[in-house]
Amino acid sequence: MRKRKFFPAGLFSTLVVFLFPATTAAQTPDLILNPGSSYVDAARSVPWGSSFNRNYVLVPQSPNASVCIYVVNNNPTNAHSFTLAVSQAADPRVADYSNNVGRYQTVPIVGTISPVSASSMASAFVQSTAAAHIAIRFSGSSTAAGSPDTADVFLVQTVAGSCGSASSALAVQGTTTVGAAVIGNPVLIGGQDQLGNAVMANFGNTTGAVNNKNGLLIGSPGISPGASFSNLATINGTNSALAVAPAYQTSAGGSYITPQVTEDGTGSNNCVTNQACVAQWTHDQGYAKLINFSGQTSSTVFTLWGDSSLTGASFSSCRVDAIVSAASGTTPTLDVFLQDSPNGVNWTDRIHFAQFTTVLSSFFAGISGTSTGITPTGFSDGTLAAATKVDGPIDQYGRFKLVITGTTPSYNGTLEVACK
Questions:
Q1: Closest to 332 measured CA to CA, from 397, 408, 280, 270
Q2: DSSP readout, 377-414?
Q3: Does residue 14 lie within any of the structural domains?
Q4: pLDDT in tens, 338-363
Q5: Residue 47 and residue 76 in one domain
Q6: How far apart are CA 60 and CA 64, in angstroms?
Q7: 236 found inside a domain
Q8: What is the domain range of residue 346?
Q9: pLDDT of 300-329, one tens digit each?
Q10: Does the model's pTM come out above 0.70?
């Protein structure tokens, strides 16, 4: 007969503890979501308040997956407010958010998700790129009267640039990286190949050379084709997406013109010479001109915008100054008009300064076309009442008209205009 050996109970308990130690890992309030699907049920019928206020850490299906966040308020009588924050981590070994806050970066939220009305749903959108984990954090909610006072939270992963109500308030979040799929947001600047991936835009010139650009060039105010070129500055070398060419004055008292932007940043190419402008320009056209007159004895006109330097310009406002520094003659008079025209032939008065006689005077005036219109009326060439103006849209041709009367009149002075 075999003898059985018995271990003391205390020794057996010690072996159990030694071989199978108790779990002592830190607990976290974060709920890790690794669904393997684009559709994620984060919470159903969760009570508002402390139960709703928690962190959800989503493991996205793709590093390019953006997330639509939906909150449904099941309360039939009361709305609920809360705070939503979203962060992402690139490290796939980060287990949660609460114990790894420093390894997460904030992701911008598009759309207004709070407050959510009674028996309603609200949504928000986040563009998360190169994320291993996305932390979606709800806080600040409280309970309210009404039954059931609960909420549903669900997520949808997408490669689109928007979702739900966020599409009406979508903010551009950067530019599409060369070689990445074009999905609408980030925005594409450049070109798109046959596979639907972003590529740099190609600009050619008359010599047959092709230059890759990082984006479409953007010029500075007042670019005028054919103007002389100097001092092009680019933000990131000659292939920069932003080029700035400062304005200069053609001559003493002349008009201000801005040089064109060229493809190589040296100024060797010219729209008039090559007949191939290699940049697309966005500019806010401006104009300024100073006219000096001396010993002026008869009526005359001085051409302003619409001349060879700025053909086809149009402006939203103009500031005008008229100064008489010397006057002589028997009962001389000088009337100064600022006029505009749609074609350079038919002119109408926009400003008529107070009449100058032998008293040395300085006047200024301005017209605006940004928020005012013009009541239908006939053209008035040199007949607008003195010390008056006509506001409204400013046409593409402009000039000063001087009307001088009297016996042996003579006037010295300056006229200056600045339009934008």
A1: 408
A2: ----SS-SPTTEE--S---SEEEEEEEEEEEEEEEEEE
A3: no
A4: 999 988 899 999 999 999 999 999 99
A5: yes
A6: 9
A7: yes
A8: 287-419
A9: 999 988 754 454 456 788 999 999 999 999
A10: no
